[in-house]
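A quick aside before the break. I want you to see a complete sequence-to-structure record at least once, exactly as it would be stored in a machine-readable document. Don't worry about memorizing anything.
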Amino acid sequence: MKSMLSKILLPHRFQWIGWALFVPSAVLAFMTLSFEFEFEWLEIANIRKPGIFSNSDENFTNETAVILLFISLFLIAFTKEKKEDEYIQKIRLDSILFATYGYFILNVIGTLLFYGFDYFSFILLNMYSIPLLFIARFRWVMYRQRQSLDLIL
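That is the input. The structure line, written in tokens, reads:
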């Protein structure tokens, strides 16, 4: 009998799509954050009412990077393994708990260390900590399991 978790996970092929999407979206996010990189073709004129200190043009390169990064992390984190069983589901549950703890700890530390615009930048980056911590821990435990099975066999 299949568990509820395996019914809601995406098919395994989506994991490769997620990894293929992750690399360019992470590079794009880094470029927009570090170098204020923008694609000209994502410029939309007169999208909002112009203010005293701002014009009405908006470039959606940053938003595109954020959305693509979220989609890629979602696809990586929530797809089945080739052989999904109860033990892998336990590793998933432990990893999501670990990621949640890490997220809250990072928020407390960031709140104590950062202020003003730096705090906003920290919160912007910290929104990726749950999926990144989950993926990192889940993949690490799976890697260690495969290694220990190779030693036994």
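Two observations worth writing down. The chain has a mean pLDDT of 87. The first strand starts at residue 43 and ends at 44. We'll return to this after the break.
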